[in-house]
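Hey, why these numbers?
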Amino acid sequence: ERFLASKGKYNIDIKNYTLIKNKTILIIDDIATTGASIGAAADCLLNAGAAKVIAITLAKEIRYN
């Protein structure tokens, strides 16, 4: 569900494509649960012409039952 909800969530204004094209972009997130938001943001950046996207998170949510 989270992956479907995140798909298409991020957009980049076409006038900013030149800032992204052929660049390595770093995404910093506080907590990664499923990775859906990071994946959606990375897809958006890559589609806008980024050469590479790297993601760093501070923590990963772990649930114990």
